[in-house]
Write a structure and sequence with these properties.
By secondary structure, the chain is of the alpha+beta class. The strands form 3 sheets. A 5-stranded antiparallel sheet has the order 2-1-12-11-10, sandwiched between helices. A 5-stranded mixed sheet has the order 6-5-4-3-7, with helices on one face. It starts with 30 loop residues before the first helix and ends with a helix. It has 12 helices and 12 strands.
């Protein structure tokens, strides 16, 4: 993980560091050190190719674990580390480059932009920067930051099994882990597994035979589909019913590759039936209900109603955020929004999650009047976020004052290389400079296209940017290249 680190992040329960008052702050940044710090602090081993390792600041030749790890390839040509001594672009230089690009017809009549220097916090370009705009999946940056702030990077979501009120009844209690797998063939690497939970239950029951399964998803409340979602989202494969118990992100077939996939209409019951099969219980016994309160153990060692029979834990929050951002996973996003709600003692619902995220943003010292959310995934057209709030959010996550937030960077797609940017910045004229230099979250809904993240200039200066458009006349075939030309222009210039 790089050089020895003498300090670890504060506990997730620790009070947040004080924030300097003011509409826009200048946040000093030691990005590579902060990222290493947060990863080491939660004990997460992250496997990543050489280019990203170079960006994170790894030194393969030092540290106690270096001898056991194959050195990463030289990352000099892709994702080189930012140079704090690189010349700062001027606002006039950036404006000269971007003005012709933000006004193109392909982006429509509402193009709101913020560009800032990460180290100094200086605003370099602003056009409608403080205006609330439909962000689409760029919302997930706010979801990731607020989840890491509320829960801490090492928090894991439990899925528990307890004894039911009736003899032989097993209650499985969903804690909101969308990555839960049935067995080793699950969709998400490193996920908790129902077969492990079933094995624990059999051991706890001794010779007793389970006879029925009850699914308790009562930690969640409210509708399973989000407000402001397009009509085709519940069945279109990119979204689905949000329940506290599900397996493989509600996918019917976990072997399906990234992207849209057929989902269970009732993910909680589907997971309950999978659990019943693992226990040898007829699936027609599976029903919804609530777990009994723990009672005094019965004579003979039989587990009392409510007694815990087993528990499995999700991957740590830092990994969940990584999955959500790198794959733009909507159901993981909604689960993380509900974790923010639970951490802040709000109902784990769409409304509760959105309100909790808004409140967490304010607690971090950011302008909460520039964010109004209805969900955590960005599928809702009711969401509004300003570009300047996004660039503030990114700078705050890179600040040494908040090392617990740095996990939001690990999953950012890389231009021409990974995630939702894998096929971009390759063959479109005017975008080549962004390959390997742009690291960003994208967003797409009909007539809505957005991108926000980080870019290293030709001089080695690290900038943060957000470009949001929500009145696009055409499709992604014209809108995305236009967005890519904006970010590639930042990558290709010194803008002095």
């Amino acid at each position: 993980m790089g050089p020895p680190i003498s300090a670890l992040p504060a506990s997730a329960d620790a009070a947040p560091a004080p924030v300097t008052p003011g509409r826009r702050r200048r946040l000093p940044v030691v990005l590579a050190v902060v990222l290493l710090l947060v990863l080491a602090g939660v004990g997460v081993v992250v496997t990543r190719p050489g280019p990203v390792a170079g960006w994170l600041g790894d030194d393969a030749g030092s540290g106690s674990k270096a001898a056991a790890v194959t050195p990463d390839p030289d990352p000099a040509d892709v994702l080189a580390g930012p140079d704090a001594n690189a010349p700062l672009p001027t606002a006039d230089g950036v404006r000269a480059v971007l003005d012709p690009l933000v006004g193109v017809a392909a982006l429509g009549s509402r193009v709101n932009v913020s560009v800032a220097d990460v180290i100094s916090g200086q605003t370099l370009f602003a056009k409608g920067a403080d205006d609330g705009t439909v962000p689409a999946s760029v919302t997930k940056l706010a979801t990731g930051v607020t989840a890491l702030a509320a829960r801490g990077p090492g928090y894991r979501i439990p899925t528990r099994a307890v004894a039911g009120a009736k003899a032989g009844e097993v209650v499985i209690i969903g804690g909101g882990d969308p990555t839960l797998a049935i067995d080793k063939k699950g969709y998400y690497p490193g996920a908790a597994r129902l077969d492990d939970l079933a094995a624990q239950v059999r051991t706890a029951l001794g010779g007793a035979t389970p006879t029925s399964v009850t699914v308790d998803g009562s930690v969640y409340s409210g509708p399973v589909y989000g407000p402001g979602w397009d009509d085709d989202i519940p069945t279109g494969g990119s979204g689905g019913a949000v329940t506290a118990l599900m397996t493989d992100g509600a996918r019917r077939d976990p072997s399906v590759d990234h992207g849209a996939a057929a989902r269970f209409a009732e993910p909680d019951l589907a997971a309950g039936k999978a659990f019943a099969r693992l226990l040898g219980v007829p699936t027609d016994t599976v029903k919804r209900g609530t777990a009994p309160a723990p009672a005094q153990a019965a004579a003979g060692g039989t587990p009392a109603p409510g007694a815990e029979l087993g528990v499995v834990q999700s991957p740590p929050m830092i990994r969940m955020v990584d999955i959500m951002i790198s794959e733009s996973d909507n159901l993981v996003a909604e689960a993380l929004a509900r974790q923010v709600a639970l951490a802040r003692n709000q109902p784990a619902s769409f409304d509760g999650g959105a309100a909790a995220m808004d409140a967490q943003v304010a607690e971090l010292g950011l302008p909460a009047d520039e964010i109004t959310l209805s969900d955590g995934s960005g599928l809702s057209r009711r969401n509004r976020i300003s570009p300047s709030l996004l660039t503030d959010l990114i700078r705050l996550a890179a600040s040494p004052d908040h090392p617990e937030l740095a996990g939001v960077f690990g999953g950012l797609p890389v231009g021409g290389w990974s995630g939702t940017l894998d096929e971009r910045y390759r063959n479109t004229p005017g975008t080549a400079a962004g390959a390997g230099s742009v690291r960003a979250k994208t967003g797409t809904l009909t007539a809505v296209h957005s991108i926000a993240g980080l870019v290293t200039t030709a001089d080695g200066r690290l900038l943060t940017f957000a470009v949001l458009t929500d009145q696009v006349p055409g499709g992604k075939e014209t809108a995305q290249p236009a967005l890519d030309r904006i970010t590639a222009a930042l990558a290709g210039c010194g803008c002095g």
